[in-house]
Amino acid sequence: MYEKWRGSFLKVYNLTKNGKLDFTIEPTFVSKETHNNFLNRSKVYPNDILMNIVGPPLGKVSLVPDDYPEWNINQAIVIYRSIFVHSKFLANYLLAEKTIKLMSSQAKTTAGQHNLTLEICRNLPIPVCSLAEQTQIVAILESKLTACDQLAAELAKQLKQAELLKQVVLKAAFSGSLLDK
Description:
Number of helices: 5
Distance between the termini: 70 Å
Strand order of the largest sheet: 3-1-8-4
Shape: extended
Strand content: 15-25%
Order of helices and strands: EEEHEEEEEEHHEEHH
Structural class: alpha+beta
């Protein structure tokens, strides 16, 4: 069956601070003609790394997933196309607090808006180790981040249970049933 072509257009609010793209926030699509003509220079592909260059906040970085074979981005996003570096390694490096501080210190500020230039992005020193080491670092990071996510979920669950218990105790206290026992 013929499926109508839809070009996905990414904006800064689709980028996150956890390396994942969030295309559920106001997904925008463009026509094939717009994608291939007017937005031709803004094409991105799966495994490209995107970073916002206008803020605050700076430091939103996302890895392009393979949901669509091609995407487009707006002018407030820079593309890092990883050739010799593991994409997830580079994305995590760009998300690191030290990297964000370094880039923010070089940002041009106008009327409270922080802007990174393409020159600043191009001149960012990127530490490179062997691909095997990058893969190992990514595996360790993903393992630790998964553990953190699980702990955060458990904490949220415990906080919700504590709030429910608090409501039960307050209800019992105000109804006088605590004194009956």
